[in-house]
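User: What would this chain look like folded?
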Amino acid sequence: MTASSLRWRYLSVSLAAGLLALLLAAPAARSQPSGDDLTVTVDQAKLIKLPDRIGTLVIGNPLIVDATLQPGGNVILTGKGYGATNLMALDHKGEVLFEKTVRVEAPRDVVSVYRGADRYSYSCAPLCERQVMLGDSDAAFKPTLEQGVARSAAAQAAGR
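Assistant: Here's the prediction, encoded as structure tokens.
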């Protein structure tokens, strides 16, 4: 291959990679939360106040967020998985009182470390410690989860 054809191949591969990056970034730009969205962090809860005459709460995808209705129109949202879904509050007659998109995001203090294809998560507030997060590889997730379960069982046994 000549130097000219190698340069042309390098240029076309670079152009294709740049185009792919633009195409992948475009949907992310369109999915930015609007000012009306509610945002919750995964594995955390958020309290919102709604009208006290709510009869039913409806969650579009309960794998993303959980909602618990408390007296006085207090609703506790708990982030279960990454993504977006909707929350609707109905009165006892079935009339919609409230409807919003709820977005569940990753915590801002979590750092992901990749060891080959395996992802490990660390909570770095203020020191970096292992944390089990959705999306971690089995090599990272299972041992940490098993240690947490064993520790919890030992604490319960010691408290008896």
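Residues 38-105 form a domain with the Immunoglobulin-like fold (CATH 2.60.40.1080). If you want, I can go into more detail on any region.
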